[in-house]
Amino acid sequence: MGNTAVVVGGGIGGLAAAIGLHRIGWQVTVLERSLTSQDAGAGISLAANGLRALDELGVGEAVRRASRGQYSGGTRTPRGRWLMRMDGAALEKAVGTPIMGIPRATLHRLLREALPDGALTTGSKASAVTQDGPQTVRVDYDTTSLHADLVIAADGIASTVRAQLFPHHPGPVYSGSTVLRAITEQPVHVHSDFELTWGPGAEFGHIAFPDGRAEWHAVLRCPAGTRPADPLAALSRRFGTWHHPIPALLQATRPEAVLHHDVHELRTPLPAYRVGRIALLGDAAHAMPPNLGQGACQALEDAVTLAATLATEPTIDTALARYDAERRPRSQAVADAARQAGRMGHHLSHPLAVMLRNTALRLTPSRAATRMILRHHAWTPPPLN
Description:
By secondary structure, the chain is an alpha/beta fold. The chain has helices at 12-23, 48-56, 60-65, 88-95, 104-113, 160-165, 231-239, 246-251, 283-286, 295-312, 316-344, 351-363, 366-377; strands spanning 4-8, 27-32, 43-46, 68-70, 73-76, 82-85, 99-103, 120-122, 126-131, 137-141, 144-148, 150-153, 173-183, 194-199, 202-208, 214-221, 259-265, 274-275, 278-280.
């Protein structure tokens, strides 16, 4: 079996894949088109499955030290009434760890630091990936080319590699929601580690960090491409009367720090996660709405599973076939569950539907809520050593 790989895309999934391959003895080059992370101003929640994947990659402890455990919080109404409370201690008892909140920029830095020197090339966009015979793949980028035994497409939801491999696939579609988010400039007093608030056609949430700052996000139902002239002012008008700490989070944010992205997804599942010696990973393979907080965790699962199959299977082809067989059913099931969760959340706007949803949540026992979470969090990574 050969041992050279090119990873197209230096996001969470691509960096994790490169670390995994490096740990099993492969030579890896990561091509990232951006010079800096485009979502550095955002935060992320990592569930047990993602943290276990990071443990297997050797960076889990560093990530935990930079994170804040989510023990308290839950889901509320705009007036502050609790619909469902989070029991982080029960979740930790069940799976060994609470959900952890961390700035994306910090997670990216820790992953980059785990790579060997010279493995990551920024400002380099792959223009074409070609199977050059049965055992070699060529990646064209900038004005040069690389040849490798394996190429991993981790180039995100707008993946150019996926479009080349599956030209008849409809590709990503707009989910109907747009998200604005930022990290506060200074610490904000919040009463819980993590919260979601569901109002008619809108959601507001926050993730608290160890230094007292917090990431917040606002999700709105609106046509794609809708952009207010002053996003922070528009959010203050929309959410200014919602419960504490929502107004305080907005007030602690610099206007230029607000990120705004329409949420797209791969609503039509891919028929395969590999073509020849090219494997798809993360959002390039199964971009999903963020309603379960599983997008990055599924990419981390992909990365560890891919490295494990390459370490144990006799050939690259059999390894990729096993990777596809293991990852496609699970990740596509999680993506479908994320869509369903969105339909029960900010997608609802009719007063009767909102009332019925709220009543159902209030009547759901905490143990039942924990069991629902465990369906996605209780994943054990294959060993790399």
